[in-house]
Amino acid sequence: MHKAQNHIVLSDEELFRLIDATIHRERLYADPTLQRGDIMKRYGLRRQHLNEILNTYAGGQGFPSYINTMRLEEAVILMKEKPGMSLSEIAEAVGFSLPNFRIQFKKRYGVNPIDFRIAQQAR
């Protein structure tokens, strides 16, 4: 159980849902300077506790992978819904530099973002 700032006691699962919802709703993942410490401070968590929560409820991901997953998922949506956006604009919109976006995208999806986009447009 975690005691939030407003003194409501939350289970780790509830806390994860709150953190996850906040990161999505406020698009915190799109901030390239977002750090684990920002989330720890906001929710009054120790590093180990945040790591345990993510390990349990975010599929075993650490903080950087968890945030990159959100960024990449949003990038895929943008590539599908906004074909006029350049890859550079998409990378920036989701919190990546273009070189890191290319690396992370290929690592996750097994294809570079340009080839992904071409395949999407061919559908």
What low-confidence regions span 5 or more consecutive residues with pLDDT below 50? Answer: none
Largest sheet: 2 strands, antiparallel
Q: Helix/strand/pairing class, anyone?
A: mainly alpha
Per DSSP, the total helix count is 7
Kindly estimate the percentage of residues that lie in beta strands according to DSSP: under 5%
How many domains, as an integer?
A: 2
Helix content: 55-70%
Q: Termini distance?
A: 47 Å
Number of separate strands: 2
Which value, in Å, is the CA radius of gyration?
16 Å
Strand order, sheet with most strands: 1-2
Looking at this protein, list some descriptive labels:
two-stranded antiparallel ribbon; Arc Repressor Mutant, subunit A; mainly alpha; 2 strands; 123 residues
What does this structure look like?
This protein folds into 2 domains: 2-63, no CATH class; 66-122, Homeodomain-like (Arc Repressor Mutant, subunit A), CATH 1.10.10. The chain is built from 7 helices and 2 strands, in the order E-E-H-H-H-H-H-H-H. The model has no long low-confidence stretch (mean pLDDT 92). Helix 4 crosses helix 5 (87-94). Helices cover 67% and strands 3% of the residues. With 123 residues, the protein is mostly helical.
